[in-house]
Amino acid sequence: MFNRKLTALVLGNAAYTKSPLTNAVNDAEDISESLKSLGFTVVLVKDATLEEIDQAISAFKDSLNSNEVGLFYFAGHGMQINGENYIIPIDNSFDDEASIKHRSFPLSELIEKMSKCSNQTNIVVLDACRDNPLSYKYRGGTGSTTLAPMYAPKGTLISFSTSPGEKASDGRGRNGLFTESLLKHVSTPDLSIEEILKRTRNTLYALSNGKQTSWEHTSLTGNFYFKMNLTSTLTYSKFVIADKNFHLLTPNTASALIKELRSYNWYKQNDAIDKLDKGLINTFDDNALFLLGRNIYQAAVGGAHTAIEFINEFSEKTKLVDKEKVKNLLNGIVFEIFFNRDGEIREHFKLSQFNNVFSLLEYDQFEESFTFIYETLLNYANHFYVIPGRNNKVNLDIKVKNVEDDETVIEAICLDGENILKLEDGIEQKEFNDNPRYSALSLDRLKNRLSESLVIPKHLLELNFINDTVSDTTYYLFPRLHTVQK
């Protein structure tokens, strides 16, 4: 199974007093979102002073020791003085080389800190040679607004937005040309980082009309991929992981049943489920069972009552089936909740039967299937507060305020000490304050809502109400325009 622990520090500096940049913060924001989608835990720092850079890098160093891959990205002004490269904070005066040197962060110090950590792979991406109106001060001197080549310790790759002696374009759109080029390719699956950077270089060369060529120095000892298709990392056929190409499979009894389940016709779907017995299931191979499981869940979500019944009574209906066959069937069911027809993580999970499926966590015989989905979802850890698949209780501390005898307003919902109740994207606090509205939920409906929003099985949720006594007659007022989703 392809499991990785990935951490990144992304820094974008644009608000320089004497030499502001247009796109550096945009670049950092967009790279941050891209890395999150690829499974990185990302800390984004914008318009940082030297002290703030120091603090961020110190925290980043600590995170490297508990991860396998560390990535540092910087967009902003960078300089070299006497062959030493510096990241320039926004509070640098640019008055002279001495002030730049002593009020900037040496890149060599960053590389040294990263190389001494226990993680296996370090990646440093520098979009720092921006066009600089102050560069005339350093012509003929020891300083330069281009960066000097750097030594990459073992297990490290350093990527520069330009070749030595060139300057990077801050771009005319939202992004600088280098970051724009990198964003076009970084999420391409099954390409090594070297291939990603080669494609980036070709795109950059075209966008800059040949004026800018990215460059890297690498001492990586193994292959690193930003994204790998599940077809490359799971043991099932690509035709059942990305099941949009199901029709290419060889026709047989299993494929005929699956075709009926995919018909969106309840009569055909119910009839297909009725045909499933232990004898028939035991004749199917691993791929057929995995795809069958996916389509049983799909039919259940679509309302086919025999499919819903099959899931609700899964333990009973499969008790005489070979254990390995049951595992592959259930693997397909849990996979369908989270992955689409292209084998990619869903933007919106299929959760209408989520709690019925995950109630099976309580049975030891199904442990392997929930380990399977847990390990698969590790690659998408940024989508979850708690990755589904472990049979562990999750405690939520809910701060409430009584407003009526039978009504109480939810003010905060805390998980691991963090308030996760927040405004939906695009909603300003003032918009809610001007017209505060609430949804009145019973205790059971509140648990259902939290279970589906957090993708945590209902039976594993423990709610601890602060400033209130739980009552079956109490209605909890959940603020509208708010969410607890990751």
From TrEMBL:
GO terms for biological process: proteolysis. Pfam families: Peptidase_C14. Residues 4-133 form the Caspase family p20 domain. Gene3D superfamilies: 3.40.50.1460. InterPro entries: Caspase-like_dom_sf, Caspase-related_regulators, Pept_C14_caspase, Pept_C14_p20, Pept_C14A. SMART domains: CASc. One of its GO terms (molecular function) is cysteine-type endopeptidase activity. Belongs to the peptidase C14A family. This is Caspase domain-containing protein. It comes from Acinetobacter kyonggiensis.
